[in-house]
Amino acid sequence: MSIYDFSVKDAARNEVSLEDYKGKVLLIVNTATGCGFTPQYEGLQDLYEKYAEKGFEILDFPCNQFGGQAPGTEDEIIDFCQSRYGVTFKQFAKIEVNGENEEPLYKFLKKEKGGMLGSKIKWNFTKFLVDRNGKVVERFAPMVTPDKIEEKIKELL
């Protein structure tokens, strides 16, 4: 099983194969627009602007499982992120990252990198770094800001 075996839905509910991202360094993040960590969108956008041309992509999965902090529709979430933080990276359909209805991609990510607190996603803005070969190389807790991940991204690029 590889990350490239998964398909996810984009914000318009179209099926997107992660094989489309083969050869890219990925940062996969579960996000929310009403969270204390929401300002991390600014840092994520900065990373994207710096490294997109070198083969870096951010895959943003809104999730309303933590405190109901992503209550809007996909369109409302995209509008918020674009107007507030200038987000231009790919945003996907809202998902669940834990429990009975969890997105299969997240089941895989958690299996690959359970983290110090086990496999369960604890909060919004948990980040998974994936290398160009589709290997999940590291998991970052929500409080790890995007600038703290930059060196790891540069190493993989």
How do the helices and strands line up, and which of them pair or pack?
Blueprint lengths: L6 E3 L5 E3 L7 E7 L8 H12 L4 E7 L11 H12 L4 E2 L12 H9 L14 E4 L5 E5 L9 H7 L1
Parallel strand pairs: 3-4, 4-5
Antiparallel strand pairs: 1-2, 3-6, 6-7
Which key features would you list for this structure?
five-stranded mixed beta sheet; 157 residues; globular; 25% helix
Structure description:
- The protein has 157 residues and is α/β, with parallel strands linked by helices.
- It has one domain: Glutaredoxin (3-Layer(aba) Sandwich).
- The protein is built from four helices and seven strands, in the order E-E-E-H-E-H-E-H-E-E-H.
- The strands form two sheets. A five-stranded mixed sheet has the order 5-4-3-6-7. The chain has a two-stranded antiparallel sheet with strand order 1-2.
- Strand 6 and strand 7 form a beta hairpin.
- The two termini are 23 Å apart.
- The mean pLDDT is 94.
Main beta sheet, described? 5 strands, mixed
Q: How many structural domains can be distinguished in the coordinates?
A: 1
Strand content: 15-25%
What would you say the CATH architecture is? Answer: 3-Layer(aba) Sandwich
Order of strands across the main sheet: 5-4-3-6-7
- Fourth-tier CATH superfamily name: Glutaredoxin
Distance between the termini: 23 Å
The total of beta strands comes to: 7
Q: Say what oligomer this is.
A: single chain
Radius of gyration using CA atoms only: 14 Å
How many DSSP H or I helices? 4
Mean pLDDT over all positions: 94
Helix content: 25-40%
Quick one: overall form?
globular
What top-tier CATH class fits best? Alpha Beta
Structural class: alpha/beta
CATH topology: Glutaredoxin
The poorly predicted ranges are none
